[in-house]
Specification:
four-stranded antiparallel β-sheet, 246 residues, alpha/beta, binds magnesium ion, binds cytidine-5'-triphosphate, 10 helices
């Protein structure tokens, strides 16, 4: 079932407030504890919309979204978000230090346990090399919007921010898109190794990022048009074949 650490969608349809047409139709899937479920599909197919329903950025009118087997509407905002490590499609950094960004405004003074946590999170996110090359390292300055770091570095710091919180469930919205293949692979391997048993939902545009997921959902116009492993989908999902061959 979708017990501890699980996510489940039960026949979810969703329309944005004020919109006429639903963006998601009859979405059902399960990510059990420790599994990696990937969502792939063309731009506008509804991938971000699926993820947004889990932390309740929006509420569904039809169907149910469950976390640990419980309808998300029954959690307090705080209790729900404490379980989730959400990395948004656009990495958001604020003006401050590397540590402050990873600990999300929390204090991570040099020598504290929090600083140890920041180092560990940055290491898992494959950011140690560039952070340690920065002037000031973990106390180095990040400009407003992260304008002084590259796109891939921004992504790694925003992933580190999620890792730092040690969530039960990771939600990655295209969070690896600016990483080269090797960093992408190593980061995901480190996450699996170091976050023992966390459930992961990965939205991605490239096959390499999701190939080894336990299950891949293929979205098209807000519907799931295929679900299975990479091999299964290559056999029997036309939309997936098109993505894989493009
Ligand atoms: N949409 C909307 N209102 C929003 C966000 C999105 O009406 N606040 C619409 C978009 O215009 C789109 C559909 O919902 O038609 C799905 O959007 P989204 O879930 O963001 O699609 P993704 O698959 O995430 O697209 P991308 O790969 O470009 O991120
Ligand atoms: Mg998106």
């Amino acid at each position: 079932g979708s017990g501890e650490g699980g996510v489940e969608f039960r026949d979810v349809s969703f329309t944005y407030p004020g919109a006429e047409e639903p963006v998601l139709r009859n979405i059902s899937f399960k990510a059990r504890k420790g599994e990696t479920v990937a969502i792939i599909g063309s731009t506008g197919s509804g991938k971000t919309s699926v993820l947004n329903l889990i932390p309740r950025f929006y509420d569904v009118a039809e169907g149910e979204v469950l976390v640990d087997g419980i309808d998300v509407r029954r959690y307090s905002q705080h209790a729900l978000r404490a379980k989730l490590g959400y990395v948004s499609q656009r990495a958001v950094l604020f003006s401050g230090t590397v540590s402050g960004n990873v600990a999300y405004g929390g204090s991570a003074a040099p020598g504290s346990d929090a600083e140890e946590g920041v180092r560990r999170a940055v290491a898992i996110a494959q950011g140690t090399d560039f952070v340690e090359r920065m002037e000031g390292q973990y106390e180095g300055r990040i400009a407003q919007g992260g304008d002084n770091v590259s796109g891939g570095q921004k992504q790694r710091l925003s992933i580190a921010r999620a890792v730092y919180r040690q969530p039960d469930i990771y939600l990655f919205d295209d969070s690896f898109s600016a990483l080269d293949y090797r960093t992408d692979r190593e980061l995901r391997a480190a996450l699996r190794r170091e976050t023992g048993g966390a459930t992961t939902i990965i939205v991605a545009q490239r096959i390499g990022t999701i190939k080894d997921a336990d299950r891949i959902l293929v979205l098209e116009d807000g519907r799931i048009v295929g679900s299975g492993t990479h091999e299964e989908l290559l056999q029997d999902c036309e939309t997936y074949q098109e993505i894989a061959l493009s």
